[in-house]
Amino acid sequence: MGKIILSNAVSVDGFFEGPDRDISWHRVDEELHRHFNDEIGAMGGIIEGRVTYQLMEEFWPTADQDPDSTPAMAEFAGIWRRLPKFVFSRTLPTAGPNAKVFAGVVPEEIRALKAEAGGDLIMSGADLAGTFMRHGLVDEFRIYVNPVVVGQGRRVFQSSDFTADLDLVESRSFGNGVVLLRYLNRG
C-alpha cells in the first residue's frame, strides 16, 4: 500500500505562503525542480484542495509549450498530465482530465485510495493537510526549508489539534540553500 506524503516548502520561520498567497520567495531553481520531477514523477497520484488544483491546472497542462519554460518545467508538464489528481472540494463539481473530485475527507475512502493508487500519493498545502493529519492519514512529511524569513503569512501546521512523533529519515541540502527534511510518521 502506498503512503500519503505531505510535501511543502516553508520559510525558516514556518510559513508556506506570505501575505496575499505570495510564494515568490520559494527558491525553486533547475536543480530543485529536477528533484521535484524525480520525486513526484514516481508517485501514484497527487492530492490537492480546490485552490491548489485550479492554480496548477491553469499553468501546467501546457507549460511545455511555453518558450520561457525551463527544461525541468517542460518535463513537469508531462508529469502533471500523466498523474491522476484527487481534488478535495465542497464547491467544485467536476475537474479536468485525469482528475477526480471528492466532496470531503472520509478516512475509509482515503485508505481505499491509498491501496488502489499504484504508488505513493503526494499532497501539499495547509487546510487539506490539516484535515488529513487530524485523521491520521499522513504517513510522511517532506519539508523543504527555504533560506528566507517571511515574517507573516500562512503556516503549514496551523492546527493545534494534531501531534505526531516523527523519525528523521533523510536530510539533504541543495545548491540554492534549500534543505529537505524528510520524516516518517511513527503513528
From TrEMBL:
Q: Where is the Bacterial bifunctional deaminase-reductase C-terminal domain?
A: 3-180
Xref: Gene3D superfamilies: Dihydrofolate Reductase, subunit A
- BP GO terms, sorted: riboflavin biosynthetic process
Q: Which InterPro entries match?
A: DHFR-like_dom_sf (IPR024072), RibDG_C (IPR002734), Riboflavin_Biosynth_HTPR (IPR050765)
Tree of life domain? Bacteria
Q: Which GO terms describe its molecular function?
A: 5-amino-6-(5-phosphoribosylamino)uracil reductase activity
PANTHER family (alphabetical): 2,5-DIAMINO-6-RIBOSYLAMINO-4(3H)-PYRIMIDINONE 5'-PHOSPHATE REDUCTASE, DIHYDROFOLATE REDUCTASE FAMILY PROTEIN (AFU_ORTHOLOGUE AFUA_8G06820)
By what name is this protein known? Dihydrofolate reductase
Which organism does this sequence originate in?
Arthrobacter nitrophenolicus
Record lineage? Bacteria, Bacillati, Actinomycetota, Actinomycetes, Micrococcales
